[in-house]
Amino acid sequence: MYSQDSISGRRRGRPEPTAEMLSGLACLICGTDFRSAPDPEPVVVSHRGDKQLIACHGTCARMASGSVDGLEETPLPLAERVRRHQGGGL
Ligand SMILES: [Zn+2]
After folding, report:
1. What share of the chain is helix, strand, coil (3-state, %, to 5)?
2. What is the pLDDT of residue 87?
């Protein structure tokens, strides 16, 4: 298992996900902030720990998960993701 510090591991070819990305508040691929985007239709593409990683439906989802529809999983409501982000996961 990796320690929590593995999040700070860099130089793997991809930009490091931001805290917003890790909380499902922004697209993992293009960084669109779902809190301000009108209707990006985000889909779950991966997980990190018990968090859903989310990307825009379509190209971003395909880059992240290999499918334009992402995983067959319903994202948490945006409000819930915001709450968890602000509450540190509780
Ligand atoms: Zn995107």
Report:
1. 30, 15, 55
2. 84
